[in-house]
Design brief:
By secondary structure, the chain is mainly α. It contains four helices and no strands. Helix 1 runs antiparallel to helix 2 and helix 1 runs parallel beside helix 4.
Length: 65
């Protein structure tokens, strides 16, 4: 869900203002990280690194965070 949401944002980023992209990120993607942080906090280190990269991807692509 997270990766597909980021991909959808990437496809429409030329149509939207950065502020709108930021609102979409905060509304659709960030809650997944916030809600599941207690579950993901106990996973293996390699999976934590993958999740961290996934969380940082929108910041690099859209300069959101």
């Amino acid at each position: 869900m997270i990766a597909s949401g980021i991909g959808a944002m990437k496809r429409v980023r030329h149509l939207l203002l950065p502020a709108t992209l930021h609102l979409i990120y905060q509304g659709l993607i960030q809650p997944h990280f916030d809600y599941c942080s207690t579950v993901w906090g106990t996973c293996r280190v390699n999976l934590q690194k993958k999740l961290e990269k996934l969380q940082n991807r929108p910041a690099r692509v859209f300069n959101l965070l």
